[in-house]
Amino acid sequence: MEKTKETIKEGPVEVEVGAAEADKLIMAKRRDEEKRLTEEDEEDNEPIDASAPNSAGRSTEKADKGNSRGINLLSGVSTQKRRIKQSRGTRENGLFFSRDRGDGLNKDHRDGENSLKKELSAVLATTTSLPRKPAWMPEEQYKKQLESIEVYTAPEQELKRIKVEDKKSLGRRSAVPSHPISKKEHDVIVRNFYNDQTYRSRRQKRTESKIYKLRSFNNCIKYILISKYATRGGNVLDLGCGKGGDLAKWGLTQISSYVGIDISDQSIKEAIHRYRKSRCQFHAIFATGDAFNTQVPEIVAPFKNEVNLQFDTVSMQFCLHYAFANEETARRMLENVSRSLKLGGMFIGTIPSSDFIRWKIKRLHSGSKKWGNSLYEVEFPEPPPRDGQFPSPFGNMYTYYLVDAVDHVPEYVVPFEKLRSLCEEYNLELRYKKNLFELFNKEIPKYFHLLPPPLVESLKRSDGTYGVSGEDRDACSFYLAFAFEKTS
């Protein structure tokens, strides 16, 4: 019997191949496309929380045993992907960006990457001075920060000849401020770090990172949380949107509009670049601003005629803890969230788990002020209270280090019950709270089919289960997920 022939297009050439060969070529193309979509979606963010004891009061041993197990899933689950047509209309204004869906406003659509480089070069060309060294910052760390800026501002042909000190060699050095820092100084530290991190992430190959699995787990958690609470056709406000790593997740839920705000101008530029490359169908606006101290309408004022300031969902992923520097900042942040939400709207996010922090503190040796492993480290300026109970719920600073991601950035403990009571004052009622292992174990069977195959594959363990273990498990035991509803 003569074999069936099929015509396959390879670039500009059409070739005739056998049916079996055609199937192989088609499947290979599909795998390449799925890998590309996953890479567009990933974000260089902090990893996750999970194995900490939860608020239900389980014993340490039971919590440890329950959270260490993986999830057995059927290997033949089919995954559907939405192919979204990319629009071309763009409008840009300084550190703000907006794009309508297919309105054709910009006929001269430039390549995103070249545009981003030109914009950054223009900003850097107008810079008259390098950032000043904070009083607490060691000379070694300040020198490293200046080197990273020099790398980015150098001509492209010179980049290969410039060597920056390897971050890993600095990983075990203490960088805790020697004195309390002001809110203004803290904002400068955070902004400078994430600007710097944007440069560094472009030079890093993700799959070779020691925290590749942690980042995958992180993305998996956000896929679940966003899918669980997003409103189809709704409006989204993403505070602390970073480099836009969650855009594909929001696109999967078929939202109609998106507003992304971040304190780091370089992260916003990267988010714009990522949005231009994506297939997201929703209308999007990006703006640089401090949503902890400035009202949202003021931040997005350049787009007041095209922004609906009543949102169905407000998201804060791995950034709310910066607001707990003091009560005033925490309240301004929650006021912004509450005013931005519609009645019945959801406030979702991920934060460091105060339960886990307290659990770790109680196990420290007398006089110790830090813990961690080869992947991460948490360090307080002074030995914390032995019982893990701080005198005030605000201003309890520690620095957080995560290899290839976070370099001793000052953060603040967020006592969850204090957060809950504050939210209630702003008409936000708790609907969901789980450490990330609990969330993963309970929700993954329902949302497994939504995950891109490469993401699923990166979480597969040698015993056939899915999740993280060993040092990865301890490092990702630092966060919990929450959801509050706007009630009045």
TrEMBL record:
GO cellular component terms, semicolon-separated: nucleus
Q: Which PROSITE patterns would you find in this protein's record?
A: RNA_CAP0_MT (PS51562)
Extract the CDD domains matched here.
AdoMet_MTases
Reactions the enzyme catalyzes: a 5'-end (5'-triphosphoguanosine)-ribonucleoside in mRNA + S-adenosyl-L-methionine = a 5'-end (N(7)-methyl 5'-triphosphoguanosine)-ribonucleoside in mRNA + S-adenosyl-L-homocysteine
**InterPro entries reported for this sequence:** mRNA_G-N7_MeTrfase_dom (IPR004971), RG7MT1 (IPR039753), SAM-dependent_MTases_sf (IPR029063)
Which intervals carry biased composition (Basic and acidic residues)? 21-38, 98-114
Glycoprotein found in the keyword field: no
On whether RNA-binding is a keyword of this UniProt record, the answer is: yes
According to its UniProt record, this protein's enzyme class is transferase
**UniProt name for this protein:** mRNA cap guanine-N(7) methyltransferase
Question: Which residue range or ranges hold the MRNA cap 0 methyltransferase domain?
Answer: 209-487
> What is this protein for, i.e. what is its function?
Responsible for methylating the 5'-cap structure of mRNAs.
